[in-house]
Amino acid sequence: MEKKRFFTPARAIFCLLSVAVMAAIFYLSSQDADESSQTSGFFTDFILNHFVKGYADFTPEHKDEINEVISFIIRKCAHFSAYASLGFCTSCAVGKRRLFSLGSLLAWGICILYACSDEFHQRFVAGRSCELRDVMIDSSGALTGLLAAMLAMWIVSRKKAE
Predict the structure, then answer these.
(1) 91 and 146 in contact (C-beta within 8 Å)?
(2) Average pLDDT taken over every residue of the chain
(3) How does pLDDT run across 123-147, given as a tens digit for each residue?
(4) For the chain, which residues make up each domain, given as ranges?
């Protein structure tokens, strides 16, 4: 019987990827409100101009109204996606395990703590705020990433067993 190593090259890679995702989140959170609005505004403009029929003909008031809603959705989706990536990488760094285990709780806990620290960090960035809603969105994204990683690891282990 082969002894399993705790720290494998794959885990090391996912540890580094987790740190890289954290660094990217920190960088984006360090942008002041104007820079952050420009970043999300680029995506908002692209979506509105390419996917909303007749957007160019809307009144300025209607454009502003739609822009505000779409921009909000894009920013919240960005939170969810960034933390889904972090959850995936952190989960893979922890390795194969059962869903309800200390390892799963550790992976998700790391993401939640980082989400809290990220929101706290934003309190000190011009025009940004610390919001519990964002921590909840981040935590949900992290849990989704964690579950996706566990599903991927389960599929890979089944393929190896065949």
Answers:
(1) yes
(2) 92
(3) 999 999 999 999 999 999 999 999 9
(4) 20-161
